[in-house]
Amino acid sequence: MSGKFALLEEKVEAVLAQLEELRRERTAIREENRDLGSELNRMRQSFEEFKLSQADQADVVKSKLMAVLDRIKEFETIGL
Length: 80
Description:
The chain is mostly helical. It is built from 1 helix and no strands.
């Protein structure tokens, strides 16, 4: 009978060891997910800043183009 209890105890210890390993893996995955989430947020912020920068540059180019067109209209009005 004690052989059966010893075998049962071995199996219980093996299950407990597997559970502990799963707990460590889960903790590592959580940390990695947290790091990836932080990196994703930084990338989103950088992308938003890039979009704003591009929009600002487009506005500057548009403004200059409108100024050129206005000058062309002025020259056409005075006959140049």
